[in-house]
Amino acid sequence: MPLPSLQDIIAAIATPPGKGAVGIVRVSGEGSIELVAGLWKGKNPLELKLNSFTYGKILGADGEVLDEALLLVFRAPHSYTGQDSAELHTHGSPAVLRKVLQALVEAGARPAGPGEFTLRAYISGRMDLAQAEAVLSLVESESDAARRQALRGLSAGLSNKIQALSEGLFDLLAHIQAWLDYPEEGVEPAEIRGRLEPILGEVRRLLATAPAGRIAQRGARIALVGAPNAGKSSLLNALLGYDRAIVTPIPGTTRDYLEAPLEIAGVPVTAVDTAGVRPTEDPVEKSGVERALQIAREADLILYLADSSQPQLPPPALPWERSLKVATKADLPAVWDTQGFLPVSSATGAGLEELRRAIHDRLLRDAPEGEVWITNERQAEALARAEAYLCEALEAPEDLAGLSIEGALEALASILGKNVSDEVIERVFRNFCVGK
Ligand SMILES: Nc1nc2c(c(=O)[nH]1)N(C=O)[C@@H](CNc1ccc(C(=O)N[C@@H](CCC(=O)O)C(=O)O)cc1)CN2
Ligand SMILES: Nc1nc2c(ncn2[C@@H]2O[C@H](COP(=O)(O)OP(=O)(O)OP(=O)(O)O)[C@@H](O)[C@H]2O)c(=O)[nH]1
Ligand SMILES: [Mg+2]
């Protein structure tokens, strides 16, 4: 399917469904201001000072007043889409918004598709594809970490980085070409490797931020695992700040798993409290234990809890590289060496802040705070492709390295939306909401 036409005037409700203090209907396209002028009673929109609000009334086709509203007018190219655009700020009632959209459509606008305003901004060259994706990430950001990264992407943080890497590769290509054409004058072949390696290193560092980017955007699953009575449910409650899970002194209290959403140091997290792991013949408890181990295997991070006030049985087999070890009940005297464990007391709250920090640092381990991260699957795939090409270039004989470098350049360019198929573009914008 071809991308939608830029010629039509598109219209959409830009505010979320439901009631609100104010609702916004936006229109964009050549002739959109004239179209709105036909429905506007007040100062002539065509004579308005740019980017200023005016108060007036919106009229339906038969002259009926639909609402009192504010009108905001943008002139091409100084608008979000780069085209003539207008916004009607109405009372935030679904009935008003529907009626205003209907009046605009009756006057000649077409209902916009998902993300079509941002698509226009992309096509008109006001932003590249990575920035458009950052708009989507920003709208969807539910945590502070995600918000910060999306904003960085929107202001071309990632785009500039990709651009810099590409320039390094273009430069290298030119040198290789010079060497092929004038072997006595061009760079030494040995220099190619020396120049490729740092670029490959940069690509790898950026690629390594992808898991953190995904976690900042989508959140992480953290499993609380340990022997019965280790204090898993108590720790869940302490992290939440309210009593979500049942706590008793009887080992085996939690029989099934229990999920609770929370935010840890700016990262959205689903914490999963599980049944205590121990050898058992009880069929109900056995299922609970199996489930606990399954949840641990699938989690982004495991908190392995061990009661520091009680002698411990050997721990179960867990993916320790994805685990943090926690020594619970730190308010009681320890009866074993808790070195390598984070001491925490759910009873007093001691160690909780350190635990939150440790969870945050572990989840975002490969993503330095002040830098850009990869925040979606499409970007990660393209970067992985660039990495593979660069490895290939390092292995190839000098006269063939250029081909692999070109492959890497193409992969990098696709992150910015250069030379990508309409299908790729469509897939990106399909995830947007209507009105964005
Ligand atoms: N009401 C409203 N709020 C909004 C938006 C919007 O479109 N409407 N935005 C988006 O959905 C975001 C703001 N982004 C925007 C980006 C550029 C322009 C714009 O008109 N730029 C022109 C003029 C700039 C200027 O006057 O300095 C330009 O860049 O040329 C508008 C909004 C968030 N809040
Ligand atoms: N002194 C002290 N007691 C604690 C602490 N945390 C938990 N306990 C006690 O330890 C017992 C077990 O706590 P739970 O949180 O139910 O332990 P659990 O790991 O969820 O146990 P199961 O659900 O049976 O696997 C309860 O009596 C808690 O009050 C702590 O930090 N200090
Ligand atoms: Mg429990």
Automatic annotation (TrEMBL):
Binding residues for K(+): 229, 248, 250, 253
Any single GO BP term: tRNA wobble uridine modification
Cofactor (UniProt): K(+)
Keywords: Cytoplasm, GTP-binding, Hydrolase, Magnesium, Metal-binding, Nucleotide-binding, Potassium, tRNA processing
SUPFAM superfamilies in alphabetical order: P-loop containing nucleoside triphosphate hydrolases (SSF52540)
Domain TrmE-type G: residue ranges: 219-364
Binding sites annotated in the UniProt record for (6S)-5-formyl-5,6,7,8-tetrahydrofolate: 26, 87, 126, 436
Annotated cofactor note: Binds 1 potassium ion per subunit.
InterPro entries registered for this protein in UniProt: G_TrmE, GTP-bd, GTP-bd_TrmE_N, GTPase_MnmE, MnmE_dom2, MnmE_helical, P-loop_NTPase, Small_GTP-bd
Keyword flag Cytoplasm: yes
Similarity comment: family membership: Belongs to the TRAFAC class TrmE-Era-EngA-EngB-Septin-like GTPase superfamily. TrmE GTPase family.
Subunit structure: Homodimer. Heterotetramer of two MnmE and two MnmG subunits.
Summary of the function given for this chain in its UniProt record: Exhibits a very high intrinsic GTPase hydrolysis rate. Involved in the addition of a carboxymethylaminomethyl (cmnm) group at the wobble position (U34) of certain tRNAs, forming tRNA-cmnm(5)s(2)U34.
Protein name: tRNA modification GTPase MnmE
Species of provenance: Meiothermus granaticius NBRC 107808
Lineage, uppermost ranks: Bacteria, Thermotogati, Deinococcota, Deinococci, Thermales
The gene coding this protein: mnmE_1
